[in-house]
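Bumping my old thread because nobody answered last time. Still need a sequence for this structure:
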């Protein structure tokens, strides 16, 4: 089954890109811990930061006070920032206490923050020192989630890129294996596993794995499918190990998921007839689920503020499969390598912007008065107060949205704000 060509679209160099540099309204990369700590079940994420960092993660995760999550904060006090204490000694003490209390931890991430980077605390060296001390029971790695450097989805990219060197070297004499890159909810991962098995692709691994001890081997016979458009550094690190990336649309909606699976099927030589036999029932069920939201969304305009880097594939999905009109597709960074297929399918007439100058973008949004605005939490309430209908972009990352079975749920996330506004009308 081939994915039909779009009725309207643009080549990658045909849609002009508005590049903006100014004030941004985004969460920092620490927020990625909220879904990563649920994915890698024997890992722990220790943020080296301030009380503000601790409040951010606790609030974003919504963890009850009685829960024992797999993340925490080594809080830097005034004496640390002033250089009156040895921050490395303090950190070693915190890690020793943590690992003694939580013997289930097999992989510990030291996560840098704005405060730790401002005082030039070398967490890379600290991770090497602590890993030497606690191996083989615990591996210690580090990455940066600092808002100085990253938007919130780049926290996952930095984390997974740090995990790549831990992957074993695959023997180039082994049969080809498929590596799906990107943290997916377990239910979505299981659904994809079943689909790949039906297609005859038996050796499939997911990165990150659910257990730290199951990091898949990577080598020249590894074929990589990227599930998230914000994993540029991770994809490059895996390609540097000899893996070959399969370019495709991202698995959002019926058409995106079909194209994503087709890229793997073609690499494994699956016949068109067999591919259609396996995929067609799932695709048709997804299209029926989309029809319910299409009645609400078709013909409505949408405006994306840059937040998660999901914006281009979501704009393609909403335009092609639900009939929405994209006015502006804002994204923090435009990774042209990963988005090559998506760029060719973006709707004509849309404005594609990279980066952000929030005041200028707000002016454009107010002038165009879109039917729906996709933005971060900091902008949603003010825009709602101005009479606009908004959708929190962070919910699109926290919710299961990939694949055929989630297509209807993904569409409903965009239809729900209209139902909410209708219910609030007096």
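Sorry it took so long. Here it is:
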């Amino acid at each position: 089954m081939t994915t039909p060509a779009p009725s309207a679209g643009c080549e990658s160099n045909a849609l002009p890109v508005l590049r903006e540099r100014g004030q941004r309204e985004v969460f920092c990369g620490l927020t990625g811990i909220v879904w990563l700590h649920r994915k890698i079940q024997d890992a722990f994420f220790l943020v080296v930061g301030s009380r503000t960092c601790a409040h951010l993660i606790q609030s974003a995760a919504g963890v009850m006070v009685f829960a024992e999550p797999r993340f925490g904060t080594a809080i830097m006090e005034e004496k640390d920032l002033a250089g009156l204490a040895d921050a490395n000694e303090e950190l070693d003490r915190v890690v020793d206490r943590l690992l003694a209390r939580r013997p289930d931890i097999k992989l510990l991430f030291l996560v840098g923050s704005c405060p730790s980077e401002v005082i030039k605390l070398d967490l890379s060296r600290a991770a090497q020192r602590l890993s030497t001390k606690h191996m083989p029971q615990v591996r210690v790695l580090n990455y940066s989630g600092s808002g100085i450097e990253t938007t919130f989805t780049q926290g996952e990219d930095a984390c997974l890129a740090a995990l790549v060197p831990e992957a074993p070297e695959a023997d180039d004499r082994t049969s080809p294996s498929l590596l799906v890159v990107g943290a997916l909810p377990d239910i979505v991962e299981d659904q994809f596993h079943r689909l790949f098995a039906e297609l005859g692709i038996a050796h499939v691994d997911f990165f990150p794995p659910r257990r730290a001890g199951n990091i898949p081997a990577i080598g020249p016979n590894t074929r990589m499918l990227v599930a998230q458009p914000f994993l540029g550094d991770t994809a490059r690190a895996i390609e540097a190990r000899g893996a070959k990336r399969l370019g495709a649309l991202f698995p959002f909606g019926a058409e995106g998921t079909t194209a994503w699976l087709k890229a793997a099927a073609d690499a494994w030589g699956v016949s068109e007839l067999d591919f259609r036999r396996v995929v067609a029932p799932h695709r048709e069920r997804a299209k029926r689920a989309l029809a319910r939201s299409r009645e609400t969304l078709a013909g409505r305009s949408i405006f994306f503020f840059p937040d998660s880097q999901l914006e281009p594939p979501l704009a393609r999905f909403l335009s092609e499969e639900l009939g929405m009109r994209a006015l502006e597709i804002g994204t923090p960074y435009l990774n042209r390598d990963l988005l090559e297929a998506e760029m060719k399918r973006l709707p004509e007439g849309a404005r594609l912007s990279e980066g952000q100058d929030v005041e200028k973008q707000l002016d454009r949004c107010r002038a165009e008065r879109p039917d729906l605005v996709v933005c971060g939490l900091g902008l949603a309430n003010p825009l709602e107060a101005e009479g606009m209908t908004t959708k929190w972009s962070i919910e699109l990352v926290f919710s299961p949205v990939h694949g055929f079975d989630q297509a209807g749920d993904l569409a409903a996330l965009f239809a729900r704000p209209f139902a909410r506004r209708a219910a609030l009308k007096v």
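The first strand starts at residue 17 and ends at 21. Let me know if any region looks off to you.
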